[in-house]
Design brief:
Elements: H1 7-23, H2 26-34, H3 40-53, H4 71-83, H5 91-104, H6 107-119, E1 124-127, E2 143-148, E3 154-162, E4 173-179, E5 190-196, E6 202-208, E7 214-227, E8 231-232, H7 238-253, H8 256-270, H9 285-313, H10 321-344, E9 357-358, E10 361-362, H11 373-379, H12 390-400
Parallel strand pairs: 1-4
Antiparallel strand pairs: 2-3, 3-7, 4-5, 5-8, 6-7, 9-10
Helix pairs in contact: 1-4, 4-8, 4-9, 5-6, 5-7, 7-10, 8-9, 8-10, 9-10, 10-11, 10-12
């Protein structure tokens, strides 16, 4: 695999870098720097700028707005996004449900949903996990019973509960796994439904996480009426869509470019200018060893991600190697937050949103770099669980790669 960038690749990198520098909203950068909670419009503002440029969904088919970029260009784009500390495009619409729709959906579904996902007109959430069905997702109990309405059309009546539904408080639509045949084997009785979140019977309740943020929710569905035409693919074959979607999600979870930026921040935090006593942590043999080991593992993960991108460019969808990316990517993300907290020292002591405060301006004790280390550490504990827990991914690798 040749990793030397061609002159055309370098020109593309410079184009991306210049575009981000000229168009990334300054107010958004300030919010990220201060660790402020993002509003719905914050996420959508950058999404719409990239959509107008034609860069919001590089991996989509060209007919629906994809960029037809090479694997190298996709890699360079993610590198430049991370380098600029630009917020990531939320994956639920662009990177998760859209590939399911353009792969398994009808012509009408593609025409109805894909343009609005692309342009940021509709915000999506994911209805997969349930209180008793997280890592063992196939055990889900949310049921959908088919019936004929008074208008003569076919509908599903959906009842159940979903949990850990990220940013559902903002969602216009959700994609849900529901059980349509309770008598079938658990993986064979599931369907994939697109549900308007404004439908009567849907209740979204916040779950406040340990860092004080409202990121996730529980979603209740009580006699929710969903047209059968909102089902993607065949009835009782939704597990096929679910596995396809999760493979795409796991590939994206690796987050190599952003992890590289995270290592750079650790080096900045550990340098003398951020220390109150002038001590440079990078001269400490133990801390230096931890950073070096992290960088070695991150380089190995980067090569694996490049191989997956090259495979996708050759027309092969993400396979079991996406589980490798998910495991190592999330473990590295967690190690980064652990080292950041170690570098922050006592300045990384947990704080709670809103205290202390000076009017509308948040402040913290110690270096600015230490401001969010504890909340980031706590929040990042989730990464080894979502998208299929790392324990489950090891089982997939054992079966699909090692043949055990």
């Amino acid at each position: 695999m040749n990793l030397d960038f061609s002159p055309e690749d370098l020109a593309f990198r410079d184009e991306v870098r210049a575009f981000i520098a000229e168009n990334y909203p300054a107010e958004l950068r300030a919010k990220v720097d201060e660790g402020d909670e993002m509003a719905k419009e914050d996420f959508l503002s950058w999404h719409r700028i990239l959509a107008q440029k034609g860069w919001v969904a590089p991996s989509w088919p060209k007919e629906w707005g994809g960029c037809d970029w090479s694997s190298t260009q996709k890699y360079l784009f993610s590198e430049e996004m991370a380098r600029a500390d630009a917020i990531a495009i939320l994956p639920f619409g662009v990177a998760m449900v859209a590939p399911v729709i353009y792969t398994f959906g009808t012509k009408e579904q593609k025409e109805r949903y894909l343009p609005k996902i692309y342009n940021g007109e509709e915000w999506w959430c994911q209805g997969y996990s349930e209180p008793g069905a997280g890592s063992d997702l196939a055990s889900l109990k949310t049921k959908a019973e088919r019936f004929t309405g008074d208008d003569g059309k076919e509908y599903y009546l959906v009842n159940g509960q979903k949990t850990w539904t990220t940013l559902a408080q903002h969602a216009d639509w959700g994609f849900f796994l529901v059980r349509t045949d309770p008598t079938a084997k658990i993986q064979e009785g599931i369907s994939f439904l697109l549900i308007d979140m404004k439908t009567p019977g849907i209740t979204v309740r916040p779950i406040i996480t340990i860092d004080g943020g409202h990121e996730v929710n529980e979603v209740w569905l009580e006699n929710v009426k969903v047209p059968v035409e909102n089902r993607v693919f065949e009835e009782n074959k939704g597990w096929t869509c679910a596995k396809f979607l999760l493979a795409h999600e796991r590939s994206g979870i690796a987050g190599v470019a952003r992890s590289k930026r995270g290592v750079e921040r650790i080096r900045e935090m550990a340098s003398a200018e951020y220390s109150d006593d002038g001590a440079n942590l990078l001269k400490d043999a133990d801390f230096k060893r931890k950073v070096a080991e992290l960088e070695i593992d991150l380089t190995a993960l980067e090569y694996t991600e490049l191989r997956v991108l090259a495979s996708e460019s050759a027309g092969k969808g993400p396979g079991p190697e996406s589980s490798l990316l998910k495991i190592k990517g999330t473990e590295i993300q967690q190690r980064i937050t652990e080292l950041a907290l170690e570098a922050a020292g006592h300045y990384g002591a947990p704080y709670f949103r809103g205290f202390p405060a000076d009017g509308d301006n948040m402040y913290s004790i110690g270096p600015d770099a230490a401001h969010r280390t504890a909340p980031n550490y706590f929040n990042t504990r989730k990464t080894s669980i979502y998208g299929g827990s790392n324990e489950i991914q090891r089982n997939i690798i054992a079966k699909m790669v090692l043949g055990l």
